[in-house]
Each structure stands twice: as structure tokens, then as C-alpha cells.
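Figure 6 in text form: structure in, sequence out.
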């Protein structure tokens, strides 16, 4: 009888940013944790994806799978309760509509800098993650390999913060929208949102992780809707493209490199062997997220966040039902067709 090693059920996760739409990723992670069959190796995350990644890792250290589920729920519920009541009134909360008070804040954010509008650097997100995440324990005890993306505001270069470098400032840097938040300084260097340089970075999951499966959890639609016409639509689409171009370019490069390695007649090196044996998987919700206005990324009502969480859970459950048996054996995503 021929011995066949058991399939590798370990997964490394690539979690895209997308503001409040990150609650969809919360649902995906919650379903994977509840299912219990998937093991986790590394997580690369940007902005909201970084928040999910670090909260997930801290919860795992605190209490395993159930600890991670509880930590994610606590974090997103805190986000949903962080907006002052008078600002949250009046919007279509369940469908992601912004309240008039928040719309006014966004208008003034286009006219003035964060230093002018918010001189005391009030940031509810800082308070939430400072209160919930034990960064010292995370750095010392987490077995997960974390790669949190931020962008150097002066050079445009990607900076990846690893598990041993994790801090409140590193996490805030990954989600620092410069029109809304004060620039984050770390070791004398200024950082903005990681989505400007990688949303998310996939290469560390190839180079620094052992899992043979990489799962992409995407929040930016692969195909956008109608061509934008109004000034506001053009502004929103421009930001969408700026936040996804580097990721699309990286995935195209990976697809090209995998194809090149598969055609090689020469002995393969370490990278080529890794490219050939890694399997890619995708959980996304194009049909839902492509219908939501760009402004819904800033909607933090609990009703809206919970709707996205439930959608994420449903999509992850559907993926597990259709593709779980492929883990460690073959890809459920054709990278060339999707990104080439």
C-alpha cells in the first residue's frame, strides 16, 4: 500500500482593508473558528484587515478559538458603539447610510487637515484597541505569524510590522487615513494607511509561512459597477483603485511566476518549489460589496456591522461546504484567471 501524507489543513490568511466592511471578514473568521477544522499559520492584514488579524491573534492567545471569536465580537461591537449618539442619528443604519452629522464631518475633512479639525488627536479606535489587546503578551506568546502593512508617508515604501513588533502605534498606522487621522510616527518615521502600498501583502505568506494554503479574504470588488460620472463617484473610484492596484499587481506577478515555474525544465529552486506547491483560495462578496456605496466603509452602526458579519459567516460556510476537501491538495481559485 502506498503511503500518502495527510493533507495540510493549515491556512495563511490575507485580509484586505475596507473600513467598516471589515465586519464581513469578522464573519468569515468567526465561521472558520466555529467550524474548527482549519488551522492557522500566518496572517497578513491591512487597515481593517490588520485590526481583524491582531484581535484574532490576541484572542487566540487568551482563549484559543473561542477566545478569538469572543475578541472579534467584542472589538466590532465596541466599534459600533463608539460613534456619539447625536452623530449616529438620522442615517439608514441597517443599509449603511451615513447620518447627517457624519456627512458634515467628512465634508469638513476635505477642507481642513486632521491637525486643524482634531488638534487633540482624539481617536476612539486607539482607546478600543488599547483597552482590549494585551500587546506585550501578544508579542511574547502568539504562535501566529503576523504581517501588518503600513505605508511610509515620505517614501511610499511598504513597512510590514511582524508579531514581535506589534504595538498600538503599529496597528493604528496600518489604518491611518491621512485626511481623517493624525499621521502615526514610529521610530521617527511617519506612516499612513497600509493600503497605499499593499492591500494586503501576500509575499510574506509565501516566504515566511509553511502552510500550503493561502486564503484571500477580499473586500474590494474584483469588478466595479458602472463607470463613475459625478465628481463624488470619481473621487471614490480613484481611492478604490489606489487601494487595490498594488495587490492586483502582486497577484499578477505571482500568477506569472507560478506559470513560469510550471514550465521550467531545469531543476527548481526553493522559491519555485514553494510557488508550485502553494494552493490559493478566495472568500469574497462581490455581489454584495459592489452594490454598497463607498461611504458605507465609514458606517459603524451595529445593525450594519452585524449584517456584514452574517454575510461573511454565510460566505465562509459556503466555501467550507464546497472547497474544504481541497485544502492541501489543490487550489479552489485559479490565480491566473482571476488576476492575470
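Output sequence:
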Amino acid at each position: 500500500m502506498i503511503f500518502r501524507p495527510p493533507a495540510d489543513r493549515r491556512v495563511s490568511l490575507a485580509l484586505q482593508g475596507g473600513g467598516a466592511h471589515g465586519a464581513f471578514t469578522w464573519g468569515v473568521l468567526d465561521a472558520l473558528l466555529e467550524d474548527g477544522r482549519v488551522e492557522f499559520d500566518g496572517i497578513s492584514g491591512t487597515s481593517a484587515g490588520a485590526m481583524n488579524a491582531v484581535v484574532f491573534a490576541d484572542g487566540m492567545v487568551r482563549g484559543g478559538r473561542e477566545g478569538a471569536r469572543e475578541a472579534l465580537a467584542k472589538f466590532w461591537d465596541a466599534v459600533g458603539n463608539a460613534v456619539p449618539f447625536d452623530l449616529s442619528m438620522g442615517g439608514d443604519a441597517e443599509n449603511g447610510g451615513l447620518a447627517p452629522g457624519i456627512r458634515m464631518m467628512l465634508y469638513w475633512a476635505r477642507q481642513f487637515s486632521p491637525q486643524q479639525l482634531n488638534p487633540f488627536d482624539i481617536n476612539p479606535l486607539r482607546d478600543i484597541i488599547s483597552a482590549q489587546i494585551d500587546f506585550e503578551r501578544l508579542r511574547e506568546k502568539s504562535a501566529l505569524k503576523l504581517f501588518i502593512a503600513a505605508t511610509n508617508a515620505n517614501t511610499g515604501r511598504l513597512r510590514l510590522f511582524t508579531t514581535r513588533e506589534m504595538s498600538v502605534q503599529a496597528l493604528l498606522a496600518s489604518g491611518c487615513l491621512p485626511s481623517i487621522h493624525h499621521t502615526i510616527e514610529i521610530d521617527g518615521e511617519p506612516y499612513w494607511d497600509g493600503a497605499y502600498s499593499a492591500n494586503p501583502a501576500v509575499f510574506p505568506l509565501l516566504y515566511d509561512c509553511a502552510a500550503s494554503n493561502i486564503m484571500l479574504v477580499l473586500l474590494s470588488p474584483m469588478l466595479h459597477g458602472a463607470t463613475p460620472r459625478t465628481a463624488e463617484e470619481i473621487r471614490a473610484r480613484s481611492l478604490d483603485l489606489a487601494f487595490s492596484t498594488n495587490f492586483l499587481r502582486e497577484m499578477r506577478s505571482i500568477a506569472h511566476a507560478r506559470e513560469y515555474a510550471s514550465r521550467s525544465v531545469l531543476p527548481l529552486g526553493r522559491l519555485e518549489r514553494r510557488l508550485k506547491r502553494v494552493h490559493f483560495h478566495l472568500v469574497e462578496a462581490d455581489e454584495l460589496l459592489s452594490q454598497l456605496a463607498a461611504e458605507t466603509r465609514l458606517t459603524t452602526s451595529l445593525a450594519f456591522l452585524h449584517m456584514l458579519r452574517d454575510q461573511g459567516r454565510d460566505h465562509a460556510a459556503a466555501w467550507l461546504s464546497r472547497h474544504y476537501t481541497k485544502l492541501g491538495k489543490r487550489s479552489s481559485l485559479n490565480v491566473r484567471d482571476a488576476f492575470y
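Caption detail: Strands lie at 10-15, 39-46, 145-152, 158-162, 184-186, 189-193, 213-218, 279-284.
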